[in-house]
Design brief:
The protein contains 15 helices and 14 strands. It is an alpha/beta fold and 451 residues long. Bound molecules: cobalamin.
Amino acid sequence: MDLLLVRPPRRDPSDAGLSVPPLGLAYIAAVARDLGHSVEILDAYATEMSWADFDAFMRCRRPQAVGFTAMTPVADVVARAVRICRPYVGKIVLGGPHPTAVGESVFQEMPGLDAAVIGEGEPVIGPLLEWWQNDQPGPPPPGVRVPGGAFTGATPMDPGLIPRPARDLLPNDAYRYLFATRRGFATMISSRGCPYRCSFCDKSVGGSKWRARSAKDVVNEMAELQRNFGVGFINFYDDNFTISRKRVMAICTEIIQRGLDIEWKCEGRVDSVDPEMLTLMRRAGCRVVAYGVESANPETLALLRKDVTVPQAISAFADTKAAGLRSLAYMILGAPGEDQASVEASIRFCRDIEADYVQFSTLSAMPGTPLFSHPRNADQSITNPLDADQNRMTLTDMDGEELGRLVRSAWLGFYLRPRPMARLLRDAIASGSIDEAWRMGRALGRWRLAA
Ligand code: B12
């Protein structure tokens, strides 16, 4: 079958969202291609295609099947793309966290869809395309939801057996990461699933069972990225890269033994790092560890069900610095129960622990998360300069305008200082992310003027 996998254009051309590869689509493409289908990926977001050009492209291209991916904050953008494509294509399927979390109601949101894939798509895409090719005999295959039809879930594949993402189909030169330290950027997933219970996290796709690839296989992929795609910096997007100390040590040892000269970033929990591990990570090329600190207020940490403490955050940041690594703190400001003073305490905390980078956000209740049923007090969207393209409701007891002002002043106060600015500029030059730095700078500048 002729399958076109699509990430739609930006909602608004000035959107400063991160331009990182749509790895989910690349995984689906690899599996479908291995099964003999003809597959193409259109990343209209990264290539900054306009909506008019997207329309013209689809009108001319007319594939047999189109597959979209959606997170909830961009579901309306995907719905627009589905409407545009509908007259020109045979079948349309949507996968990703949004359809997985909302289920059947996705067909009301996007009436143009023929099917939705629920959960991980690798074991599902082949049977779905075959079902379509054979004119839909019997019920849909496991993992496929059709409007009004019965549904059975599919069993996820062992992550060690999934083929490499089809990165050769992606516009690799269009991807950048603001905090990268070298040229040539790629993302990787070395494990899936997470056993923790954070109330703001949507685990509908990956599930609670942590499933990891072997250290050898992970390092093989890193080496392939360097050799075949000229990658110098890898961002690991695992939910929790540091969950198994043994595996992190094995990955680092493997990198060091092979003499692989590549830099990388990963996400960790403040309760699962220690000085010895961080030091080995640094020796193995790690430059940045990002932690979900979320808040300096114990009540908020309890609401978020982080199962970490403020002292653990303090010691993880100190150990990270001592190991020669940079730290990134993800923060959530203004959660229910917080007021101006508690927000300011969290902002101050990031300075106190000497985080090298910070991303301040507000709390959104996504479908698929325990917080989704929490009563909403402010139906408003508060953006930040790195995630401008979103349409999500903020959960807070605070006045939305006031919280928005605090979020903006947190970003301005943190980044508009000589050291963070100099570092960002240096890294942007080293990694070729000048455009990203410029977009973020412009967003900060606009806020500054408006303040
Ligand atoms: C990388 C990432 C990002 C990147 C963007 C990624 C991209 N290129 O689009 C950035 C950093 C920009 C980002 C931002 C945000 N993100 Co994010 N992000 C992730 C992360 C960590 C990894 C995504 C990934 O590559 N996964 C690996 C691939 C293999 O999985 P996948 O994409 O889900 O794809 C699989 C299936 O979904 C399915 N599938 C997906 N698409 C398709 C298509 C077809 C046709 C088929 C058949 C199957 C299929 O098959 C794939 C293979 O198994 C996930 C968490 C996670 N572990 O997935 C969160 C996650 C996707 N993000 C999330 C959120 C909430 C956000 C933010 C709102 C957070 C914020 N601070 O503001 C913003 C919103 C940005 C926006 N523009 O609106 C939520 C989404 C929840 C939801 N219901 O939508 C997640 C799930 C985190 C979580 N656990 O809660 N994010």
